[in-house]
Structure formats: structure tokens, C-alpha cells
Write a structure and sequence with these properties.
Length: 604
């Protein structure tokens, strides 16, 4: 079995659970049961039961169903990785060729051919469901068109979208394999509504006129039946247009339900944690969970039960209504932003801050966003955010070069970092931005010197008289070098400079200065102080999610040395063993050598 591919979200390759009160769409499922090849498109606005239909079909054939829920930010590599990962849910050994793309450059055209061949050699019919194909990024159309042309004959596809597909399906049409399900095809039949009415305890004949006003629109039918079962009233509307129907439905919602939805509409997608933070009382949160279980207003994403998406039509109607009250809208967006920050969805928070004109706050968040992407070694996330990040860095054309050099520092080789630094310096010199990125360059050069074992240089460039110190991390690496060289005088100087600098963001705990103070305490024989600080930094680093070169290698050494002194040899060895692999992986060779030497000393 292969390790999960990078960037794959399990919730987006897992079919959702079918709500128990939803009827089986037998007539539509009969179409899907026709022999391969088959290409079925369900095209309708939100609320026509498309995803539930797809989930029903997937539940009938779990041993052959690929499920993919696209995100607009997906690159074509993301798309292929998700689809292969879904295939591996029922055929774990499938697609060994994809493994090379973990490290090699991704070739979209070759990948399409390889994936088509993989399906063709499966040995039986394969089902491929795309839930929300309108969210496939337009830049991927060249390759999705190629996939449509190469789709093997043992493939049956169900593609769900809210608009017409942008690519040509002439091949499927030519072999009579193409079928389109329009809203009228997806609407409930009268006998289906009767069954649903019975499920909700509603007298269908007595309420037929009220129910008919939603024109058999599945979501509208369910809304009406739910309202009837609770209050005896239904959507009071003669409107024929879906948009007006939703507006009328919102006007007839119970105030408590509308209040819940209103507090959630500015989230792109919604986690349970975000819903809990947004809803002010436990009662509101429980009501939200009841709504999600019915899948009418809030739709679950995947089968985990932890992530949700509000019906886009309902969300759009509420947002449109809120525009008539700018002060209330601003208040809701501001609260959403704070929750997004707390749940580490910074890109979405930045977009909302731009929307309400808080550019300064957005700029502050961009710095934190960059650091978290670097801490996570999130290369794809950084590349996707380059345009937004560059705009706020205020350094014009060299923004992409700075970000690429930062990525090389975070997770690239030392040779790659050396090249990126030179490219960045040349670009900054040409653009006149060299002074603006002096702090970034100092950090990169310190990391390069330290990783290369040139400890003297790492110290010297940070203690140079003309240096304008901006980075605590650069000083921390220089302090690491001074500690390893047993140069206490320079270590003291570096700690003194660090004390004059603020942390990168006031909302974050500063881990760099405590690390430097712990090293100084250890050098001065203050073992208990050193151990306490080391443990604090190790735990704080875990909570912040920092990885790679930001792992607390210095504090691991510090803690292991004090543990050795205190007779806790086994704990010290376990701690060193845990971090040795990371030190090697991220080219922190001075610490790797120190770990090995310390472990050898303990084991003697």
C-alpha cells in the first residue's frame, strides 16, 4: 500500500453518506446502470439532489467508484493526485507510475495518458464521479479535454456541475454514450414526493397545493415538508424562478434557523470547529447539526461529518440580502475573519479583509500566512498564493523570487538555496529593492552558512556592524553556531540583540529568544533553567505547527544534555533519535553531528 499522495484531502475523495430520509432515485439510477462506455452529466443549481444521487450510485458500487470533489485552487497535479488516491481506496496497488511525481516534475499530458491506461487495464468497469466539476480551474481545461478524448471504454462517468461543461464531448456523443440530466430530469416525481411526505408524517393530498408551489425542486420540497412538519405552514410563494423561490423560502424560515445560516454564509466551506465558534450558544450549534444531518441548507462534504458547505443558492440569497445592511454585513465578515484566523484559514481571511477595506490588517496577516506555509513546507500552497503575497510584500516584481528563495530555504537543498539567493540578489539589485529585503537575505545566508557547517560565517554576518537586525530566526541560528563553537561571548552578544527585537507577530508566542536564553543558561551551568526553557520551546513549536528547519533542534540538544546530567539517559536518547532524521532531511548537519556525538557519549 502506498503512502497518501501530497496535498490530497480525504474528504474530497470519499463519497458522502446518503441522508436516511432521502428516497432512492430509481429511474435515474437505471440510466447510470447502462453498460460502459457512459458519460452522464447532472447539470442543475444547488438543491436538485445531484450529490445525493451520486452518493447513492457510489454506495451501490464501492468496489469500483472513484470520487473526486474539485476545488477551484487545484492544479492539474492536485486533480490527478486526488483521482489516483480515490482509485487506491479500492485498489491500493494501483497507479505505481504516480509515485515518480512526488519528486519529479509533473507532466500533465503524460499523466492523462498514464491514468487512462490505468483505467483501461483495470479488468472491469470503473465508475468515476466528479462532484462539483464547475470548480475545476479553467487553466486545467486543456488537460480535461484530453481526458475526455482518451477516456477508456470500460469507464462510466457521472459529472455534477451547476453550468454547462466548457469542453467538447463529441467523442462520447458520437458513440451514443453522452447523457445530460437537466433540472427537470432531477426534479422529484409525484410518487417520490408522496413517499417523502409519508416519511415526514405529512398528509400529501391535504397539502398538495402548498407543496406544488416549489415545482418539485428537491430542496424546495424538503424545505416545505420540514416546515409543514414543524409549524403547519409552508413556503408561501407563487414565484416560478428559483432565485425568487429561495428568497421566499428565506422569508418563511424560522428566525432561529435564519440566524444560524446568516452567521455562516461568509465561510467558503465550514468545519465543525468554525461552526461552533460562530454560533453563540450550544442550542444554536445543535440546531446547526440537525440541519446538516438533513442536508437541505448545509451540505456535508465527504463522509467524515466534520466539514460542510452551505447550499450556494441559499448562501448567495442571504449575502445579497445582507448588502442592504452594510453595518451588519461588516460585523458578520469581521467575526468570520477572526474565526478563520483562529482556525488557520488565513488566505480566506485575507480575502475577506480586502472585501471590507481593511488592507492594513490583510497585510499583517500575509506575513503570518507566509510563515505558516513555510513552517508546513507547503510548496503548493505557497505557489498558489504567490500573487496575493507579492502584492502585500510591497516589493514589486521581485516578490516571486523572494518567495521561491524562501521555499528553497525551508525545504530545498543547500545548493538550490545558494542559487536562489544569487537570483534574488540580482533581481533586487536591478529593481532597487536590495535594502527592502536585507533582513530576508540575512536569514537565508545564515541558514546556508549554518547548514553548510560554516559556523564562523553564520556568527560573523549577524554581528557585522552595518547589519540592521530584523529576524529573530537569523539571530537564533547564529546563536546556535556560537553555542556549538563554545563562544560564550558572542552568544551573549546575540542574545542581547535579540532582546531588542519584537516577535514576528504579536499574536504568536516568541520561541526564538527563549531558545537562545536556554542555550546561554546551559553554557552557564543553569541546568534547570535550560531544561524548562527547552521544554517550553519544544511544546510551543509543536502547537504552532512549525516543521523543517524551524524544528527546535537546539532545544532538543539542550534538553538531552540536561537529561543526561540528571540521569535520564533513556529519555535523552529517545528525544535525540526522534529528531535525528529531521535534521538529516533538512540539511541541519551541525545539529545532526551534535546529536550523534551526544548519543554516542550517553551510550558509552
Amino acid at each position: 500500500m502506498y503512502e497518501i499522495l501530497p496535498g490530497v484531502s480525504l474528504s474530497r475523495i470519499t463519497p458522502p453518506t446518503v441522508p436516511p430520509q432521502f428516497i432512492l432515485r430509481k429511474s435515474i439510477l437505471e440510466l447510470l446502470e447502462k453498460p460502459a462506455p457512459l458519460a452522464v452529466f447532472a447539470i442543475a443549481p444547488s438543491g436538485f439532489g445531484k450529490t445525493i444521487l451520486a452518493a447513492q450510485w457510489a454506495a451501490m458500487h464501492p468496489e469500483r467508484t472513484i470520487w473526486y470533489t474539485p476545488a477551484l485552487t487545484d492544479t492539474f497535479k492536485d486533480l490527478v493526485f486526488h483521482c489516483v488516491s480515490s482509485l487506491r481506496r479500492f485498489k491500493p496497488e494501483a497507479a505505481p507510475w504516480i509515485e515518480k511525481y512526488r519528486s519529479q516534475e509533473f507532466d500533465p499530458r503524460t499523466a492523462v495518458v498514464e491514468f487512462a491506461n490505468e483505467i483501461a487495464t483495470f479488468g472491469s468497469t470503473v465508475h468515476f464521479i466528479t462532484d462539483g466539476a464547475h470548480n475545476i480551474n479553467p487553466i486545467n481545461e486543456e488537460f480535461t479535454q484530453l481526458w475526455a478524448e482518451l477516456a477508456p471504454e470500460n469507464l462510466k462517468t457521472l459529472t455534477i456541475r451547476n453550468n454547462l461543461p466548457p469542453i467538447n464531448y463529441s467523442r462520447a456523443i458520437a458513440i451514443d454514450a453522452f447523457h445530460m440530466l437537466k433540472p427537470i430530469d432531477l426534479a422529484f416525481a409525484e410518487d417520490e414526493i408522496q413517499v417523502l411526505s409519508d416519511n415526514y408524517g405529512i398528509d400529501y393530498l391535504a397539502n398538495q397545493n402548498l407543496i406544488s408551489k416549489v415545482q418539485n425542486w428537491p430542496a424546495g420540497v424538503l424545505m416545505t415538508l420540514k416546515t409543514l412538519s414543524k409549524t403547519g405552514n409552508a413556503v408561501n410563494s407563487e414565484f416560478q424562478d428559483s432565485k425568487m423561490l429561495i428568497a421566499a423560502t428565506l422569508d418563511n424560515l424560522e428566525p432561529s434557523i435564519y440566524s444560524i445560516l446568516e452567521k455562516l454564509v461568509y465561510f467558503e466551506n465550514l468545519s465543525q470547529e468554525q461552526a461552533r465558534l460562530a454560533l453563540s450558544t450550544p442550542g444554536q450549534y445543535q440546531s446547526f447539526l440537525r440541519l446538516t444531518s438533513e442536508g437541505i441548507f448545509v451540505l456535508p462534504i465527504g463522509s467524515s461529518g466534520e466539514d460542510f458547505a452551505i447550499n450556494e443558492l441559499i448562501k448567495g440569497a442571504i449575502v445579497a440580502k445582507l448588502k442592504s445592511n452594510p453595518a451588519h454585513s461588516h460585523e458578520l465578515i469581521s467575526k468570520t475573519v477572526e474565526i478563520l484566523i483562529k482556525t488557520k484559514q488565513l488566505a480566506e481571511a485575507i480575502n475577506h479583509l480586502e472585501e471590507i477595506g481593511e488592507a492594513n490588517r490583510a497585510g499583517e496577516l500575509v506575513g503570518l500566512h507566509v510563515r505558516r506555509l513555510l513552517w508546513d513546507n507547503d510548496i503548493d500552497g505557497m505557489l498558489k498564493s504567490i500573487e496575493m503575497i507579492s502584492k502585500y510584500l510591497g516589493i514589486g516584481s521581485i516578490g516571486p523570487d523572494l518567495l521561491k528563495a524562501s521555499l528553497a530555504m525551508a525545504c530545498g537543498s543547500l545548493d538550490e538555496l545558494s542559487v536562489k539567493i544569487k537570483v534574488l540578489e540580482q533581481a533586487a539589485t536591478s529593481s532597487g529593492d536590495l535594502k527592502n529585503i536585507a533582513g530576508d537575505l540575512l536569514t537565508m545566508k545564515t541558514r546556508l552558512a549554518f547548514g553548510s557547517g560554516d559556523l564562523t560565517k553564520a556568527i560573523a554576518i549577524n554581528l557585522a556592524p552595518d547589519v540592521n537586525h530584523e529576524s529573530l530566526f537569523s539571530l537564533r541560528m547564529a546563536a546556535n553556531a556560537a553555542f556549538l563553537m563554545e563562544d560564550i561571548e558572542k552568544l551573549e552578544k546575540l542574545v542581547a540583540i535579540a532582546k531588542t527585537l519584537p516577535p514576528p507577530d504579536v499574536s504568536e508566542v516568541s520561541i526564538h529568544l527563549p531558545s537562545m536564553e536556554a542555550l546561554l543558561a546551559l553554557a552557564e551551568g543553569k541546568l534547570r533553567d535550560a531544561l524548562d526553557s527547552a521544554r517550553f520551546v519544544i511544546e510551543a513549536t509543536k502547537e504552532m505547527g512549525a516543521t523543517g528547519i524551524w524544528l527546535p533542534y537546539d532545544m532538543v540538544y539542550c534538553a538531552a544534555e540536561v537529561m543526561r546530567e540528571f540521569g535520564e539517559e533513556n529519555n535523552a536518547i529517545a528525544l535525540l533519535e526522534w529528531y535525528k532524521g529531521e535534521a538529516k532531511k533538512f540539511f541541519m548537519s551541525p545539529w545532526l553531528a551534535a546529536f550523534e556525538a551526544k548519543q554516542a557519549l550517553i551510550e558509552c
